Amino acid sequence: MAMMTPNLQATDCSNLIPSLTSLFPPRLLHRPLSLPHSRFISKASLHHPSSPSSSSSPPSLVNRRQIISQTASISLSLATLSSLPLPAKSEEVLSEWERVYLPIDPGVVLLDIAFVPDDLNHGFLLGTRQTILETKDGGNTWTQRSIPSAEDEDFNYRFNSISFKGKEGWIVGKPAILLYTSDAGESWERIPLSAQLPGDMVYIKATGEKSAEMVTDQGAIYVTSNRGYNWRAAVQETVSATLNRTVSSGISGASYYTGTFNTVNRSPDGRYVAVSSRGNFYLTWEPGQPFWQPHNRAIARRIQNMGWRADGGLWLLVRGGGLFLSKGTGISEDFEEVPVQSRGFGILDVGYRSEEEAWAAGGSGVLLRTTNGGKNWTRDKAADNIAANLYSVKFINDKKGFVLGNDGVLLRYLG
What we know:
mainly beta; 4-stranded antiparallel beta sheet; 3 helices; globular; photosystem ii; photosynthesis; WD40/YVTN_repeat-like_dom_sf
């Protein structure tokens, strides 16, 4: 399928059903509360003949007074104890993450987040149900953002991806919508798109002044250098066309390929890795290559997601909770499994904070951490009580990170 025309003219693929699905406080010191030390009077002391008060009062009266006095002291101490504040519930306090509550409806799935490079307090958060949220305090609080150009039509947009370079920013969504800002998101304009665009736009990357790179779930990659007025195809055909040509090359499961990606991730130097919709093989692309390169999976279980490590290698997640790392850096088909404590839930994404530290998130609040580049992982139990699937881990830099989930769940990294 040719895609070299500048106006995104391509064969209409509307009969294909798009199937891209995004899977894409410090801990309180719980001090034991102890009762005040009460001086209980022993039986022997109550009846000691040399007791100072025994010379002036009958022993029984002394006993009553002392017992009443001690009882009153204990009652007062218990009353004071009951007024102390109780520790916060564990689900509200996470070890290195805190939950940020958002002004959105339950059921919204958060899909992407980005900040303005020149002002890391100013950022945007995207999701389903036409969700765009804005923060100006680094992600502590968020407000709904209304963009008139995205509300002109009676569509309920799913905003998939956002990216900034300087003050220029881009947003793509489904049904097909492209938004652009040149003033750090203070205003957004809608850029027209061809109705024959193959597939749904699932990813966009701001690459320079008036320049961006856009990917659809059918493998089309387009680049612009004039603010989106014209786009040039970076690959010569969609993935389904590539597989139709190379089905005899031995790619397992290619005959069942529905023509769409399940996930797609870009490395900082512009390489892509994508997982087929059924998870039975994966594909890679490097700048300058005319076609996507399909790869057989070397693991029996189907692939859930793939992405790039901080050292340039690949990580791979399989259904059921397995995590694999490629041997060496760059594109590889040689992977080895590393042990993880996922409690049987699937791991859905990995985000690297540095070359050594990374976090993985998944179903039912699974949150894992590595401090040696991914060789060993430990489970962060603090997120166990969060009733949500955690789909995406995003680190803006080594001090600012977020985990995005369903039902509007957002976790902010505290460090």
